[in-house]
Amino acid sequence: MTIAISQGFACRSQLSFNLPLLNRVQKARQNFSVAAIESLVESVSVHKEDFRISPARDVKGANDDFNPHDWKKLCSKELGIKTSRITKPAKVVLNVLRKKGYEVYLVGGCVRDLVLKRTPKDFDILTSAELKEVMRVFPHCEIVGRRFPICHVHVDDAIVEVSSFSTIGRKFSRKSKSSMRKPSGCDECDFVRWSNCMQRDFTINGLMFDPFARIVYDYIGGMKDIQRAKVRCISPANTSFAEDCARILRGIRIAARLGFRFSRETSHFLKEFSDSLLRLDKGRIHMEMNYMLAYGSAEASLRLLWKFGLLEILLPIQASYLVSHGFRRRDKRSNMLLSLFANLDKLLAPDRPCHSCLWVSILAFHEALVDQPRDALVIAAFSIAVHSGGSLSEAVDIAKEISQPHETSFHEISQPNYAYSKDELMDEVIKLADSVKSALKRLTDENLVSQALIQLDEVRDIFGRVVFDTIYPVNLATQ
């Protein structure tokens, strides 16, 4: 007997959510053959003639008095940055634009991660080329965004985001005249780079890396905040969050992933501006939630969302669950919800994210158990059946052979009343599957959930493993 779609549970590959603010996000992906420009593609590290710079650790900028932080130009080699960490698609774009005579920089979180010896989630590129010029250089490319347009360059199955100095310059020109004024003694190149950095969200995202000259530009104290493990807004936090409230969620995601703390001012206005998230587009919310839950830092993200009062806005059912269990804002305890996502985090990484279907399914599974706790044996058989995608009868047989102890502290796991027969256990597994399917329907605004979870190999395998490892922790087995 197999778990049929009608008996099991399912989720669509693209989901839209009934939960407040969450909705579907669709990303167009196009395949891009680079054969036509392969002759231009070289490893960034081979451009030795471009790397001849002073090995000084700290070369001060042109006008240190203009900015509260010293302007710094740092040798990337001294920082331990390896260009081998840059992905091939990013190298393609960097090298092609460089060959065409344009300035190119890596900017944002990828530079921060390279400094921290972490694997970047993606690589954002800033160039002196106009976006229309980028379009002419790359055959598979489109301009996206209305307020702040950027280019999506498709290389193989990856998308590389490319922004232009000119676009940022037009945005910057809308600022006050005093903000635009170039300080005396500041050369034009430094001023253009500084202007761009000032438009970013957090100081640790305000670094700029020239991979050919191997220089990291730090105009706003990003390195100092990396050393202090702090997330700090570049502009005053109230101004920054008023300008773009999505920065609240981005800050949570960064702090969760890196284990950083917020500066006092940033922390204060995270709470003050929490209601502004209600104005965000549903698709933007879902994208930010996916970045939090699908890239290996879900547990820490949920804890921070709870700490700053954001969870009740984004995931009110889960917030209610924490309240009902007496969970406090700074609580370091765990529970089944957090344990599920902690086990998911062990299997993911920024460069190995999961499909959004997976974390939605985990939320639905947990909600089903909160509604009606189940015997550990039932949950085990269910997880094995989903993981294997095979016979329910075989999954039940395997589950009945489990001899290791299960987790007993979770309220969602009921105490066994008696020994199930095989048929009874199979019936209980089917009931649990139906309950999870119902929870999925409540999470989505689709009338029918038609694409089976077991048809998505990534989701099926990882989901089953996460559930089993949560119910039967390895540490209990070793004890």
TrEMBL record:
According to the lineage, what is the superkingdom? Eukaryota
User: Which InterPro entries is this protein grouped with?
Assistant: NT_sf, PolA_pol_head_dom, PolyA_RNA-bd, tRNA_ntf/polyA_polymerase_I
**Molecular function terms from GO:** nucleotide binding; nucleotidyltransferase activity; RNA binding
Q: Which Pfam families match?
A: PolyA_pol (PF01743), PolyA_pol_RNAbd (PF12627)
Please report the stretch or stretches of sequence annotated as the tRNA nucleotidyltransferase/poly(A) polymerase RNA and SrmB- binding domain: 259-321
Which terms under GO biological process does the entry name? tRNA 3'-terminal CCA addition
Q: In what residue span(s) does the Poly A polymerase head domain sit?
A: 104-232
Keywords (A to Z) from UniProt: Nucleotide-binding, RNA-binding, Transferase
Q: Gene3D superfamilies recorded for this chain?
A: Beta Polymerase, domain 2, cca-adding enzyme, domain 2
- Family per similarity comment: Belongs to the tRNA nucleotidyltransferase/poly(A) polymerase family.
Q: What is this protein's name?
A: Poly A polymerase head domain-containing protein
